[in-house]
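Revision sheet: structure tokens.
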Amino acid sequence: MKQFCLAALAFSTLLAGAVPDGEALYKARCAACHDGKPQPRMPGRDDIAKRPPEEILKTMMAGAMQPQSAGLTPDDGRAI
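Predicted:
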């Protein structure tokens, strides 16, 4: 039992320290709308990339994109 507990603790520590995959998150959560031809009020990826990271994160976590970012952590947002 002790070995199981140590293994579970080690695994949970690894998961807690895992860095989110920003590219995978972008593809799953953002690409459908932001890749391809830009739409009114929906900038393309190239336009978004020109913005400061702090502005993008603020828009995702507390601005217009908050509903689309539901369930993402601040670390996920930073990775995207």
